[in-house]
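Appendix B. One record, verbatim.
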Amino acid sequence: MVCATVVQLVNSMEKSVSNYAAANGGSSTTVIVSAPTWTAPLFRFYKVNVDAGFNVAEKSASCGMVVRDHGGNVILSALKGFHAIHSPLHAELSAILFGLDTIKAEGLLVSNS
């Protein structure tokens, strides 16, 4: 079920990006370059960072995630590979879901439901 949700989300996001580009005179892109920085979470909170790489030829992706505390200490890190990935956006969304699933499985995600 998660896979179908990711594909639907990717399709929706790609349509939104296309609509935005069309409304703003085409597909021109503005690139903003800045030095990467990491901002610590509040005390007693964790921060989850994820990233993904996409292989166009193989339609595959890999991702990594790291969980850090307010002091920047690594609490958890993990890697995963994916198949049947259709775009860089699909890869990034899969990485986000992987990060959420991982912290939930490790008991780091607190939910009211």
